[in-house]
Amino acid sequence: MPESEPTGEFGLIDWIRRRERARPAKSPWTKLGIGDDCAILDVGPRSTLLVTTDMLMDGRHFRLEKDGAESVGHKALGVNLSDIAAMAGVPRAAVIAVALPCSGASGLARRLYDGMAALAERFGVDLIGGDTNAWDGPLVLTVTLIGEATARGPVCRNGARPGDSILVTGPLGGSLHAGRHLRVEPRVAEALALHAAAPLHALIDLSDGLSSDLSHILVESGGMGAILDASAIPIHPDAREMSRVDGKTPLEHALHDGEDFELCAVVPTAEAARLLAEPTKGVSLFRVGEITEAPGLLLRTSAGEIQPIAPRGFDHLQNSVP
Ligand code: ADP
Ligand code: MG
Fold first, then answer.
1. Under CATH, which architecture does the 15-149 domain have?
2. Which residue's C-alpha comes closest to atom 11 of ligand 1?
3. Per DSSP, what are the bridge partners of residue 130?
4. I need a labelling partner for 119 at 20 to 30 A (CA). Which of 56, 83, 84, 241 fits?
């Protein structure tokens, strides 16, 4: 492999991003391009748009036969809503592209749209367009979601500072157990409430896993580090269930599993203490660690030992066989 060939999913995304940045002519709309949960477009003096897209594939993100089309529709819109939440934005409109298996295409599509309808209604999202295809292959569904930043502006991944607290909005790990990953509960209202209540230095949704997603914040914030407290990480009961069968510890599941779709927020420590002491209505918060100036991700074990954590979130280019 030539030295310059990008490796892994994030290596490839970085290659695309650097190439795009090097282009001389930039659209005046693009305030933030590749690298965060959403792109940010400044489209007028009072409007800042957020744009995100996620593709779901049968055999990778779901198993149509087992999971059912309604659940798949819910997940497809839900993961995109989660990315709008990760910028503390308000979702507004969705564009949906489907590649349907030829056999039973129309009935399947109707069930997918039934699955999306309840979430779209709840979050005030209009379905404004899309594209319909059928082929001799498995179901592929791509949702592009457009949202709007609030008057306080979007929250990016790049503002973490040494000494800041790291918060998460719910228990983590084991989302594959009993299909919880399909029942995404996007934390849109929680993100907006937190953004109104405190200055958020960085925000991301936990789609790839805490170790991996927090590492994105650390890198984007200019090479910070973090130390996580093992005893403070809220562990989902599903992580305990899975650990009974696969031999991994519940903590490993909580650190590295993806698709919990909780938020991870980085907040100045005094503000974090205030948020924890006076909880914002409807928002659960757990302080799981703090940002450090020295790069790298560390774990303080319950015995007080410090150990390095190797991020091991999911990489599509290194896990190409489902
Ligand atoms: P998330 O997990 O929040 O959906 P991803 O890890 O999928 O984010 O993507 C990280 C960033 O890279 C995002 O800004 C996304 O828009 C961008 N990105 C991912 N794949 C591509 C691609 N093929 N071309 C351009 N940008 C991409
Ligand atoms: Mg995201």
1. 2-Layer Sandwich (3.30)
2. 35
3. 96
4. 241
